[in-house]
Amino acid sequence: MPTAEPLAIILAAGKGKRMASELPKVLVPVCGRAMIRYVIDAVRAAGVHRMLIVVGYRADLVRRELIGEPDLEFVVQSEQLGTGHAVMMCRERLELHEGPVLIVAGDSPMVQPSSLSALLAKFAADRPACLLGTAQKPNPAGLGRVVRNKKGGFQGIVEERDATPAQRAITEVNLSTYVFRPEALLSSLQQLTANNVQGEYYLTDCPGVLKAAGHAVEALCVLQPCEALSINTVEELKAVEQEMRRGLER
Asked: What is the pLDDT of residues 50-66, one digit of tens each?
């Protein structure tokens, strides 16, 4: 039966080639815990109790790590063809869902429950096709910039490699945290193409697809700077652990 309760999709299929580990990236320990556990805890604390975990590389290990966890369903992405493709694997579940769909990355252990709660509250109030969670980051190198129009409305996401000098100066960044209406998400996924160097389907293209089709797309700058700390390398892992320890000491 369709439900209006929120649903979360946690992207957890990647290998993490630069992590010097054979583990799936989301199982790499951060301060002694698999990083995906911090994400699951944050999603639950924000009031979302049904989660789809998209697994791929060494999926058996992720399942084993999370065995016994309530309210989790596993969806297999057998080929890693991008974040958009990962969400496509959830299509059957999404077709039976009526409530908001929260999408977060499983390798973002600094995600804050308060940020997710604020996003869900804003979405409930406005009901856009898509709501992006963004952050201000003084040094936004490597991150997609959020471009707004003169009235402050969302205009698009520009990846750094495609940005003009003026756009590179923007400090509001996209952190791959979204809330979608399910029918809008499905519609935008169907329109994605893999016409890029990586040959992948990017979830970051979905807001632009919806905007171009005339749907309401909003961006809420509610994520904290610490949530911009992603983990792609051993050095970034150390930086996140330092930030976590500082947070515990406060």
From this structure: 999 999 999 999 999 99
